[in-house]
């Protein structure tokens, strides 16, 4: 009897609509990384922001997850997700353009940055919820893990290359100029999103629950589903403390360690190389370690690696280059965080019914990120009264406590996590729709 070899599955690189989403995401990430570097540098070096003001800025940039995080999920489930992504990029681009104009004519201020951060945070809530809910329907559940890995890899590449270039450019260009680049990338991102051809099918209007019960259904799924409830609680506590730490990083590096913008860019890029390694090895690491184990152990390792950040001040006092612990700790931390993110997002997407994806993701983000505005202010207050180094050690202890619910749960021993593995791809379109594909970059780097 003749043996017929099975045809191997094609990579998502050959999926035209995913390529468009991938390129759009890459463009947005390039601009976002420039803004993440330039905005706090502008606040600290040009506007003279204090530690408390940096906390306020972080709160403004995350406030929407607390205020509109839950209803956003219910609304996204009733909308075409590609349209949500496009409008979110348009709004963010317009707000950043206004920041650039006001800063260039000398009208920049911290209240202006607070207002911009607040509006951008609302658009980001809708973008993130729609983005997380869009991938499964675009590529099919069987390809969710590959899609998340590629998108995470794009983020990691941007995190490596962009800060180094941006840090060098800040020596000769004003910070608002780099923020202006983000405006251009958002415009280009909209162009690629608009070319996605897969038509989304909206659920019938008579199937929509009223807003209150719809939100409650998403929350119930998160809080009552075994394993998922431990994951969201642990991740939420971790987010509280990590927000306290990361909101002060630029302030800490500039004022305590005495590093300039160019050194900040080099440190951020060198440490983020770990993100690329994490993305490239995520699937293999999951196969070797196990789906549950990699979530538990990566969560537990991350806070010990974060300790390298406050230790950098000790290294400086001992006459050792403070960039060394920042680079080494950041590199390893990016590896573990990438493993955690790819694994837990894929687990959530597989576990959730398609009709509930928007509300599930919004509920998860609300619980995890809803406390970030408060955390930013608390971090600023602790740093203001006890010093930024003491605040960073509080973050280390808090992150360890946050990881314990996962380490003391079935995640620690499970190689395979629950989830619907029998669902085939939802995308029945051919790999190349007529008239599309050749003009798209087949060699887009992960």
Automatic annotation (TrEMBL):
Stretches that traverse the bilayer: 54-72, 84-107, 113-141, 176-196, 231-254, 260-282, 294-312, 324-342, 363-382, 388-408
Domain Major facilitator superfamily (MFS) profile per the UniProt entry, residue ranges: 222-446
InterPro entries reported for this sequence: Bacilysin_exporter_BacE_put, MFS_dom, MFS_trans_sf, TM_effector
One Pfam family it belongs to: MFS_3
Record region (Disordered): 423-446
SUPFAM superfamilies in the record: MFS general substrate transporter
Cellular compartment(s): Cell membrane
Superkingdom of this protein's organism: Bacteria
Membrane topology qualifier: Multi-pass membrane protein
Keywords: Cell membrane, Membrane, Transmembrane, Transmembrane helix, Transport
Principal localisation: membrane
UniProt-recorded name of the protein: MFS transporter
Taxon lineage: Bacteria, Bacillati, Actinomycetota, Actinomycetes, Micrococcales
């Amino acid at each position: 009897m003749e043996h017929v070899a099975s045809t191997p599955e094609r990579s998502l690189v050959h999926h035209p609509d995913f390529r468009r989403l991938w390129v759009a995401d890459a463009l947005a990430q390039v601009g976002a990384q420039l803004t993440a570097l330039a905005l706090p540098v502008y606040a600290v070096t040009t506007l003279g922001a204090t530690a408390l003001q940096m906390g306020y800025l972080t709160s403004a940039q995350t406030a929407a997850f607390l205020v509109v995080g839950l209803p956003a999920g219910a609304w996204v489930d009733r909308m075409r997700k590609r349209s949500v992504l496009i409008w979110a990029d348009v709004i963010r681009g317009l707000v950043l353009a206004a920041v650039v104009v006001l800063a260039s004519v000398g009208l920049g201020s911290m209240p202006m940055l607070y207002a911009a951060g607040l509006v951008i945070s609302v658009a980001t809530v809708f973008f993130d919820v729609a983005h997380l809910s869009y991938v499964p329907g675009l590529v099919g559940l069987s390809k969710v893990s590959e899609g998340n890995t590629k998108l995470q890899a794009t983020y990691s590449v941007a995190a490596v290359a962009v800060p180094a270039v941006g840090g060098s450019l800040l020596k000769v260009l004003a910070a608002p100029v780099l923020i202006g680049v983000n405006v251009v990338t958002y415009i280009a991102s909209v162009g690629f999103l608009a070319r996605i051809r897969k038509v989304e099918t909206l659920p019938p209007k008579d199937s929509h629950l009223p807003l209150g019960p719809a939100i409650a259904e998403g929350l119930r799924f998160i809080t009552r589903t075994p394993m998922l409830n431990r994951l969201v609680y642990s991740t939420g506590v971790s987010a509280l403390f990590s927000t306290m730490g990361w909101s002060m990083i630029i302030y800490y590096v500039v004022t305590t360690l005495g590093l300039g913008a160019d050194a900040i860019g080099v440190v951020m890029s060198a440490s983020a190389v770990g993100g690329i390694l994490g993305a490239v090895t995520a699937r293999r690491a999951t196969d070797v370690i196990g789906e549950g184990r990699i979530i538990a152990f990566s969560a537990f390792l991350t806070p010990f690696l974060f300790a390298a950040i406050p230790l950098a001040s000790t290294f400086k006092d001992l006459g050792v280059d403070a960039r060394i612990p920042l680079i080494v700790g950041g590199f390893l931390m990016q590896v573990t965080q990438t493993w955690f993110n790819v694994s837990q997002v894929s687990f959530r997407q597989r576990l959730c019914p398609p009709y509930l994806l928007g509300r599930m993701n919004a509920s998860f983000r609300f619980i995890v990120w809803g406390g970030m505005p408060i955390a930013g202010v608390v971090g600023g207050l602790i740093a203001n009264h006890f010093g930024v180094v003491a605040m960073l050690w509080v973050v280390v202890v808090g992150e360890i406590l946050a990881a314990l619910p996962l380490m003391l749960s079935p995640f620690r021993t499970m190689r395979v996590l629950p989830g619907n593995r029998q669902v085939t791809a939802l995308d029945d379109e051919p790999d190349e729709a007529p008239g599309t594909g050749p003009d798209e970059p087949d060699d887009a780097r992960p």
